[in-house]
């Protein structure tokens, strides 16, 4: 726990320094390695570096404490006691009660009486990915294996929340990679997607985070992630026709470099 606190303070300090310009080149902190990962460093030119997802994030998805998305809120959720968790739930419920009242509802009527508490619990569940970290998700599931053919897990169902409108987007993610002596337990691919999906997201970033986390964990020859999702903020407001979906992809390594590899992946997905 104290180790976590140190990491957070360190991040805060970095942010503070860069804001004040007292530390001109962007400071790069070499993150502590997970036990499963033996070598190498983060690619600072990676897509995620172009626009940090959070002011506290200067590194790609696997950060020093494995949280993969440190923020004040995520940290305090991880470290909370059961009493603090109950207080958090109550604060959320109170806020929801305010919203309902402002929207014109009578929060004392029967149907809605306990809605704030239900909604608070639901939101905590929908965002439980903030409490997960990659180390625990992939624990004991990286194996040395002499397999160098494409591995694909398709049709992983994901449910996420659009960070711009706080409404769901959901669909399927397809993950492929070509191993370089290391493979990940197949069920962990879905767990990885789930961990990033259960946060406030935009589909583009979710796609990238899954790809880059896998790339970081396995150092494979390449990673490909394709996601197709329906966004409630679009379909329910009539911006998008019901039934249409948004597709995003992230190709790394040989999937990015070689058209043939990319095509093989898309063919296997039935997309070509
Ligand atoms: Zn939206």
UniProtKB/TrEMBL annotation:
Annotated region described as Disordered, given as residue ranges: 1-85
Enzyme Commission (EC) number: 3.5.4.16
GO terms for MF: GTP binding; GTP cyclohydrolase I activity; zinc ion binding
InterPro entries found in the cross-reference section: GTP-CH-I_C/QueF, GTP-CH-I_N, GTP_CycHdrlase_I, GTP_CycHdrlase_I_CS, GTP_CycHdrlase_I_dom
Classification via Pfam families: GTP_cyclohydroI
Alphabetical keyword list: Allosteric enzyme, Folate biosynthesis, GTP-binding, Hydrolase, Nucleotide-binding
Top-level taxonomic group: Eukaryota
GO cellular component, one term: cytoplasm
Polar residues composition-biased segments: 36-52
PROSITE patterns xrefs: GTP_CYCLOHYDROL_1_1 (PS00859), GTP_CYCLOHYDROL_1_2 (PS00860)
GO annotation, biological process: folic acid biosynthetic process; tetrahydrobiopterin biosynthetic process; tetrahydrofolate biosynthetic process
Listed pathway(s): Cofactor biosynthesis; 7,8-dihydroneopterin triphosphate biosynthesis; 7,8-dihydroneopterin triphosphate from GTP: step 1/1
Biased composition (Basic and acidic residues): 1-18, 76-85
Domain GTP cyclohydrolase I: 92-268
Assigned protein family: Belongs to the GTP cyclohydrolase I family.
Purpose: GTP cyclohydrolase 1 is the first enzyme in the biosynthetic pathway leading to folic acid.
Name the record gives this protein: GTP cyclohydrolase 1
Natural source organism: Candida orthopsilosis (strain 90-125)
């Amino acid at each position: 726990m104290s180790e976590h606190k140190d990491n957070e303070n360190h991040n805060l300090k970095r942010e503070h320094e860069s804001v004040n310009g007292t530390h001109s080149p962007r400071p790069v902190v070499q993150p502590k390695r997970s036990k499963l990962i033996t070598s190498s460093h983060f690619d600072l030119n990676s897509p995620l570096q172009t626009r940090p997802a959070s002011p506290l994030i200067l590194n790609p998805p696997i950060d020093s404490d494995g949280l993969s998305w440190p923020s004040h809120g995520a940290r305090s959720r991880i470290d909370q006691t059961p009493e603090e968790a109950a207080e958090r739930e109550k604060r959320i419920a109170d806020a929801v009660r305010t919203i309902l009242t402002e929207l014109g509802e009578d929060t004392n009527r029967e149907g809605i009486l306990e809605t704030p508490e239900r909604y608070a619990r639901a939101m905590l569940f929908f965002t439980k990915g903030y409490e997960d970290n990659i180390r625990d998700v992939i624990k004991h599931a990286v194996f040395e294996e002499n397999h160098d053919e494409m591995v694909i897990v398709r049709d992983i169902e994901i449910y996420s929340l659009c960070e711009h409108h706080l409404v769901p987007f959901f669909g399927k993610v397809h993950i492929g990679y070509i191993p370089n002596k290391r493979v990940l337990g197949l069920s962990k691919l879905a767990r990885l997607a789930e961990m990033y999906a259960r946060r406030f997201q935009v589909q583009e970033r979710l796609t990238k985070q899954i790809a880059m986390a896998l790339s970081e964990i396995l150092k494979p020859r390449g990673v490909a992630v394709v996601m197709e999702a329906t966004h409630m903020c679009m379909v329910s407001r009539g911006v998008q026709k019901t039934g249409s979906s948004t597709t995003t992809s992230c190709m790394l390594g040989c999937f990015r470099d070689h058209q043939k590899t990319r095509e093989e992946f898309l063919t296997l997905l039935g997309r070509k």
